[in-house]
Write a structure and sequence with these properties.
The complex is a heterodimer of chains A (228) and B (393).
Chain A: E1 9-20, E2 26-37, E3 41-45, H1 52-59, E4 67-72, E5 75-76, H2 82-92, E6 93-96, H3 108-113, H4 123-136, H5 152-164, E7 170-174, H6 182-197, E8 202-205, H7 209-213, E9 217-222, E10 225-227
Parallel strand pairs in A: 3-8, 3-9, 6-7, 7-8
Antiparallel strand pairs in A: 1-2, 1-4, 4-5, 9-10
Chain B: H1 7-19, H2 22-60, E1 64-69, H3 84-89, E2 94-103, E3 107-108, E4 122-126, H4 130-134, E5 138-141, E6 153-156, H5 158-164, E7 174-177, E8 180-188, H6 195-198, E9 200-204, H7 205-211, E10 220-225, H8 230-241, E11 249-252, H9 254-297, H10 299-307, H11 312-349, H12 357-384, H13 387-390
Parallel strand pairs in B: 4-9, 6-8
Antiparallel strand pairs in B: 1-10, 1-11, 2-4, 2-10, 3-7, 5-8, 6-9, 7-8
Helix pairs in contact in B: 1-11, 2-9, 2-11, 2-12, 9-11, 9-12, 11-12
The chains are: A alpha/beta (228), B alpha+beta (393).
Bound molecules: adenosine-5'-triphosphate and magnesium ion.
Magnesium ion is lined by residues 52-53, 174 of chain A.
Chain lengths: 228, 393
């Protein structure tokens, strides 16, 4: 099994810069080199405007760098067209957002199952796997609840289950606890730790240093550069 | 590793998008619904009318000719031989023939009405055969009969009866023609293709001769002929009825008037369908508008879908199918409404309902095509939304 090879890089950034073409132009990322290996749990911290979200989007193929190279799971994104990167997102990448971004009026199972829609899997299989994913985030008892019937922490768990359902090579979370109180944030941190122990590779942005310190690795960003 | 969206999931996705805002969906598709309803109703009513026309033509036959030894250049009628009718009857393919003669007299309800006031009604001598030749029906009483001959009685055309205020045949009812009182023995149904006969009061030739100084020469002749030879018959009639002045003979085919009227209706129908098409176009623009608005609102959803692996094409398809569904539902509702209008019309006019399936299929198809077309621009815009931008808070 490949999981034995825990040092294999899942994300490789080399000399990645991102300049938003103003006016005035904003250098959001400035020659970032970063490697995230399989099985890692990484926190990205930094002040507001330091380029965290931009970094996450570039790593996850939602955005293209202005210069530099990005590879996911050994695939060079620069060599892929939009369709190819979309395929990569469907199969190898999961996203979790601060605002959850769930479908209102749709129950938890179907929200999670939506994570497999662009893989062309059948409805029944999507559903079975969605139930399993919800159980893995501790929401086995909330399958039929709509987002409006769930607490903030529960909603974020649903979103995490949606990111995990396809068993991606890596999950990116942008401020996953930004809308949650500290007790709930702790639970999410614990969940990430547990999922990571189960084999998931996770990169999470956070403002919350306490949250970040529970992670084995922390990357600090300042003015678009990584600092040690 | 490719993104794949199964068609059934694409459809479900689009439906979900639609039903997430049901009120808006209904409002948006109303335009399409009305446009399609108008077109279907126009098609249906016109088709039902056509069916009714064919039934009427079938009933009345298209093989009837009306021959009038027309007015000469100076307005005087050509001399018509007294036995013109008998001569026409001798033409081979002629199946049936009868003449009528205008009587120079006015018909009144009483002495208090001036003798000069025609009331728009004509007094005509006719034979008992007339009704059969032109395939008319009696509404009340009887038509002229052989036994009545020189008795002072009349039969009224439907409009004539109405104008004289006579609704039914009762023994006491009389009308004054010239200075003679006539009993009323019958009232006719209106003739679909002989409106002039509706305004006519019929007397027998014998009565006309006896009481009204009526003449025997026909002023109009109705000829029923073998449909296959109808043109040949029309060709030889002028020389037969007016050997001296065949050019003054006018021959018409009363059923032609009905066909012509229908043709005029048909022009109107095309015009209405054109208007319906314009309404559809406007509705299509409205759909495109609403879709663009909806896409601006749904940037976040689009961003999330892209992050889940949707390609630009998947996003495009989702919104095009949504737009088609929007228009399709409107179209279906329109078809139901239009069919309802047609059925109501048909019931009201007592004609058979006829809604051409091809017309319905075409209008639903048009609605779907319109939806697809209206969806293209919004869908392309949706697919161009930058996913990284869309998921930023
Ligand atoms: N579309 C854009 N056009 C121009 N500048 C942009 C754009 N998006 C982001 N920026 C700028 O790029 C810089 C980095 O933004 P980014 O969102 O990555 O920061 P961040 O670290 O995630 O901040 P926060 O903690 O507030 O979320 C900021 O200065 C921001 O203003
Ligand atoms: Mg950010």
């Amino acid at each position: 099994m490949e999981s034995a090879n825990s040092n294999r890089p899942v994300v490789e950034l080399s000399g990645v810069s991102k300049v938003y073409p103003g006016p005035p132009p904003v250098v959001a990322l400035d020659s970032v080199d970063l490697v995230v290996s399989r099985g890692e749990l990484v926190a990205i911290v930094g002040p507001s405007g330091s380029g965290k979200s931009t970094l996450l989007h570039v790593m996850g193929g939602l955005d293209r760098p202005t210069s530099g190279d990005v590879a996911i799971d050994g695939v060079d994104l620069g060599a892929l067209n939009d369709k190819g990167i979309s395929g990569l997102r469907a199969h190898s990448i999961g996203f979790v957002f601060q605002d959850f971004f769930l479908m209102e009026g749709v129950d938890a199972v179907n929200n999670v199952a939506e994570g497999l829609v662009y893989r062309g899997l059948g409805r029944r299989e999507r559903r079975t796997r969605a139930v399993a994913a919800l159980e893995s985030v501790g929401l086995g008892h909330r399958l039929d609840h709509t987002p409006a019937q769930l607490s903030g922490g529960e909603r974020q768990r649903v979103a995490i289950a949606r990111a995990l359902i396809g068993d991606p090579a890596i999950v990116f979370a942008d401020e996953p606890t930004g809308n949650l109180d500290s007790a709930t944030s702790d639970e999410i941190a614990e969940l990430f730790t547990r999922l990571n122990a189960g084999g998931s590779t996770i990169v999470a942005i956070t403002h919350d240093l306490e949250f970040a310190q529970r992670f084995p690795r922390m990357v600090s960003l300042r003015d678009g550069r990584t600092v040690l | 590793m490719r993104s794949r969206l199964r068609p059934i999931d694409l459809f479900a996705l689009s439906m979900r998008g639609l039903f997430a805002r049901p009120f808006r969906a209904v409002l948006t598709s109303i335009g399409i619904g009305i446009g399609i309803a108008a077109i279907v109703a126009v098609i249906g009513i016109s088709a039902s009318g056509r069916a009714a026309l064919l039934a009427t033509l079938d009933d009345l036959g298209t093989n009837l000719l009306r021959v009038t030894p027309g007015a000469g250049i100076f307005g005087q009628a050509a001399d018509v031989p007294e036995d013109a009718v008998a001569m026409v009857a001798r033409i081979g393919p002629v199946e049936d023939v009868t003449g009528i003669t205008i009587v120079d007299a006015t018909v009144r309800r009483s002495d208090f009405v001036s003798k000069l006031d025609t009331g728009g009604l004509t007094v005509v001598s006719a034979t008992p055969r007339l009704l059969e030749v032109i395939r008319g029906d009696v509404a009340d009483g009887r038509f002229l009969e052989d036994g009545l001959k020189a008795v002072p009685v009349v039969v009224l055309g439907s409009t004539a009866a109405e104008r004289l205020g006579i609704r039914s045949v009762v023994p006491a009812v009389r009308v004054l023609i010239g200075d003679e009182w006539f009993g009323v023995t019958g009232i006719l149904e209106s003739f679909p293709i002989h409106p002039d006969l509706d305004r006519t009061v019929f007397v027998s030739y014998e009565s006309a001769a006896t009481f009204l100084d009526g003449k025997p020469e026909p002023t109009a002749i109705y000829v029923r002929a073998n449909p296959l030879s109808i043109n040949d018959v029309a060709e030889v009639i002028p020389a037969t009825v007016a050997p001296e002045a065949p050019d003054t003979v006018e021959i018409t085919r009363p059923s032609d008037a009905l066909v012509a009227r229908k043709a005029a209706d048909e022009t109107l129908t095309s015009l209405l369908i054109g208007l319906g098409a314009v309404a559809l176009l406007v509705a299509g623009v409205a759909i495109a508008n609403i879709m663009v608005m909806s896409i601006l609102e749904r940037r976040m959803e689009i961003g999330v879908r892209r992050s889940l692996g949707a390609t630009r094409r998947h996003i495009r398809l989702q919104f095009i199918v949504e737009s088609m569904a929007l228009a399709g539902f409107g179209g279906l509702a329109g078809v139901v409404l239009g069919a309802g209008i047609t059925v109501g019309y048909a019931a009201n006019r007592d004609v058979m309902v006829s809604i051409p399936m091809a017309g319905i299929a075409a209008s639903v198809g048009a609605a779907l095509a319109l939806g697809a077309l209206a969806g293209v621009y919004p869908a392309v815009r949706a697919s161009r939304i930058d996913p990284a931008e869309a998921v930023r808070r």
